[in-house]
């Protein structure tokens, strides 16, 4: 398998007029994203997942432009950071809101340490500011009212499983405060079908799309659009081991491995919200 496949553009390249320093400048968002996605710096195992995570289509849907201030929430090992960092490097700013390096949980400390090492490993990440995010804490993910975009990829279920509805309220409130008026929030997460019982969200790793919308709107956001770019109709969202039964985790090991590989990664909702203009 050729790992570094050329990512196709979504039709013709669209030139978007962006304002910087009072001047209008054409910003070739598609070409910039393609260059970042196809960069030689990317981790091979991350590249293998492009066909399941659809970074070009997802970031295009979220209208991320290269001169923006963007906050990536809970970046984990840096899957999306590897794309956002070079894309924003020359004229934008990326905040990576990661775990607290002084957390009481060893897993959080170790994950943050590995991410910090990654950020120090290449000039690609020279314009990344690593901050701290934990729902309900006093940490500042970025200066208040500074961000054009806040992006969260497959995190909402973790906040809910670890802190219930209180954590969700705190998270969305934090995002609202960090965004400029008119700024947008992008949320992607594993989707639990709406007809299923709410209790399944407590441990399955799946969340209802309606819950994401409700908590975002409660924080003051307006729903702008939905996308099915990360949908997977083969995913039943009904596994004893939760969403981690599917790739890339494959919690059951070799048991039914071919079946789960055939299903692919989870069905996910992709939602775009706006902080109203003041």
Please describe what this structure looks like.
It is a single chain. The chain is of the alpha/beta class. 40% of the residues are buried. A 7-stranded mixed sheet has the order 5-4-3-6-7-9-8, sandwiched between helices. A two-stranded antiparallel ribbon has the order 1-2. It has helices at residues 29-37, 44-47, 50-53, 55-61, 81-88, 106-119, 156-178, 209-218, 257-263, and strands at residues 15-20, 23-28, 69-73, 93-98, 128-132, 147-153, 179-190, 222-227, 268-274. The protein has a domain at 53-232 and 268-274: 3-Layer(aba) Sandwich (Rossmann fold), CATH 3.40.50.
Nearest-angstrom radius of gyration? 18 Å
Poorly predicted segments: 1-26
Backbone structural class: alpha/beta
Shape: globular
In the sheet with the most strands, the strands line up as: 5-4-3-6-7-9-8
Helix content estimate:
25-40%
Named CATH architecture of the domain at 53-232 and 268-274: 3-Layer(aba) Sandwich
- CATH fold-level name of the domain at 53-232 and 268-274: Rossmann fold
Average of per-residue pLDDT values: 91
Assembly type of the chains comes to single chain
Number of helices: 9
Number of strands: 9
The CATH homologous superfamily name of the domain at 53-232 and 268-274 equals Vaccinia Virus protein VP39
List SSEs in N-to-C order. EEHHHHEHEHEEHEHEHE
Task: Kindly report how far apart the N and C termini lie.
Answer: 50 Å
Biggest pleated-sheet summary: 7 strands, mixed
CATH class term of the domain at 53-232 and 268-274: Alpha Beta
Strand percentage: 15-25%
């Amino acid at each position: 398998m050729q790992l570094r496949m050329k990512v196709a553009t979504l039709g013709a390249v669209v030139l978007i007029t962006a304002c910087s320093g009072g001047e209008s400048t054409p910003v070739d968002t598609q070409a910039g994203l393609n260059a970042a996605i196809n960069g030689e710096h990317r981790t091979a195992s991350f590249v293998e997942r492009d066909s399941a995570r659809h970074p070009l289509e997802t970031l295009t849907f979220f209208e991320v432009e290269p001169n923006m201030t963007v906050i990536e929430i809970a970046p984990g090992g840096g899957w999306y950071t590897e794309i956002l960092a070079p894309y924003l490097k020359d004229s934008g700013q990326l905040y990576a809101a990661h775990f607290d390096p002084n957390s009481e949980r060893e897993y959080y400390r170790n994950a943050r340490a590995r991410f910090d090492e990654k950020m120090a490993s290449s000039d690609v990440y020279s314009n990344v500011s690593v901050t701290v995010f934990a729902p309900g804490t006093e940490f500042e993910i970025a200066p208040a009212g500074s961000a054009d975009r806040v992006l969260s990829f497959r995190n909402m279920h973790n906040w809910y499983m670890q802190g219930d509805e209180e954590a969700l309220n705190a998270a969305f409130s934090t995002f609202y405060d960090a965004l400029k008026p008119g700024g947008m929030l992008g949320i992607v997460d594993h989707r639990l079908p709406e007809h299923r019982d709410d209790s399944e969200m407590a441990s399955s790793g799946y969340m209802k799309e309606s819950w994401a919308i409700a908590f975002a709107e409660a924080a003051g956001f307006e729903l702008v659009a939905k996308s099915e770019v990360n949908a997977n109709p083969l995913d039943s969202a009904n596994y004893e081991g939760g969403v981690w039964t599917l790739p890339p985790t494959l919690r059951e090991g070799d048991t039914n491995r071919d079946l789960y590989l055939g299903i692919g990664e989870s069905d996910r909702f992709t939602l775009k919200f706006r902080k109203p203009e003041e």
